[in-house]
Amino acid sequence: MLIGDVARRSGVSARMLRHYDSLGLLRPTGRTEAGYREYSSEDIRRIFHIESLRSLGLSLHEVGRALDDPGFTPSELVDDLIRQTRERIAGETELLTRLRRIAAAEPADWEDVLRIVALLQALGSESAGKRQRAALSSVEEVPVQVEALVEAALSETDPNVAGALRWALAQSGEGGSALLAEGLGSPAAEVRKRAVQSIAELPNGEATALLRDALTNSDLVVRRYAALALGARGVADAVPTLIDMIVQGVDDADAADALSVLAGDSVLADQIAGRLVGCLARGTIESSARRRLTQALADIPGITASRALADLSHDEDRAVALTAAYILKLRDTR
């Protein structure tokens, strides 16, 4: 079969077939009396083998090795092709995401596009300073899609940059709530922590609902951050977790402050005092935890807390008794 017929039947151009010949990748079995290339059925089969391997991303050099080297093992090369393909897909996905974010910002002209691109690049910079400046400027100078800010906030390790990103999200409206909620379900503990910290700084009611849900999260750290935020918002559901934090000695001062905010409601104040007293009555509570619980009563107004402190001033644990007596003295002078 002559080269023109082969080209028509195989879909490989005559020019490419000549290129294969020049590389030694496919030499036609014979020649006509006039010197034209003549391909056998075996040559045609090799053409299809070449094209099949090329479709996997192999270079012509690699194709030649695969077909002609008896000792060639494909596993290593295939693994390398998989790696290259994943990198290419990741790169294309990143480009698609960036283009989508630029489109969502609705740029008016190319100057806007360039500013948005510069901001997105700055958010991904290796320099913490650049990332922080980008976060602070994202709200007013170059508004960007909230998704970009959420992605940056959930991956940020520098505390200063993280604070700037949370501030930017708080200024951007309610768009980030749902995306941050997804972060609460991340398999990575650090991402879950960053998600609840970011939600805690959102001012809207949707964020409060998410924080309520977070009180039942399987991650104890998430539950504690949610309780602190809800306590500051006056949500009584946070009380059990806040008291547990005092017992465990984890951010106990912040937890006590949150309880004092909640105790601004007189009815809730008596309920909080009752819960604290109930914990103090447990025989399994350590002395240090009993002292922290006693100190937490200091900022809880009402008769229930005062009576509890009076009883505790005669406690068998001298440290608890002295703490209660001192708090009572301060309450009497107010």
TrEMBL record:
GO terms for MF: DNA binding; DNA-binding transcription factor activity
Q: Which domain of life is it from?
A: Bacteria
The UniProt keywords, alphabetically, are: DNA-binding
Which residue ranges does the record assign to the HTH merR-type domain? 1-69
One of its Pfam families is: MerR_1
The record's annotation in PROSITE patterns points to: HTH_MERR_1 (PS00552), HTH_MERR_2 (PS50937)
* Protein name as annotated: Transcriptional regulator
Source organism of the structure: Sphaerimonospora thailandensis
